[in-house]
Write a structure and sequence with these properties.
Elements (H helix, E strand, L loop, with lengths): L1 H32 L4 H14 L8 H14 L7 H10 L25
């Protein structure tokens, strides 16, 4: 009887784990489909704006952007669009909305505290 309950418990844990992974992938996919494509051209505009300065009169926020570009160009580092977007906003650049109008970012069930 106890062995049978143990097997049922393990089965439930495996099922829950598979469901949570599936839910995470499904939500990430939905969020990615709703990213506003304008942000990528905004990224390039900010980078071009900052690269147009010479080293003597470069604004501080552009120094930060160029450092971030250098960090992200390193193949050993992972730089996500959402993190890059948030950094550019923190540096004071006016950015379009990250997601398409009317879409609110969704979170997987295991991140219940973010909803």
């Amino acid at each position: 009887m106890i062995k049978r309950l143990g097997k049922i418990g393990i089965g439930i844990i495996i099922f829950i784990t598979i469901y949570l992974v599936y839910d995470d992938i499904r939500i990430a996919s939905e969020n990615n489909k709703n990213i506003n494509k304008e942000i990528y051209s905004a990224f390039r505009k900010v980078e071009q704006y900052c690269m147009s300065y010479n080293e003597v009169d470069i604004p501080k926020k552009c120094e930060l952007v160029l450092q971030l570009c250098e960090t992200c160009s390193d193949a050993r580092r992972e730089c996500f669009a959402e993190d890059y977007y948030e950094a550019l906003q923190r540096f004071g650049f006016d950015m379009p909305p990250y997601y398409k109008p009317g879409f609110n970012k969704k979170y997987p069930i295991w991140k219940f505290w973010k909803k």
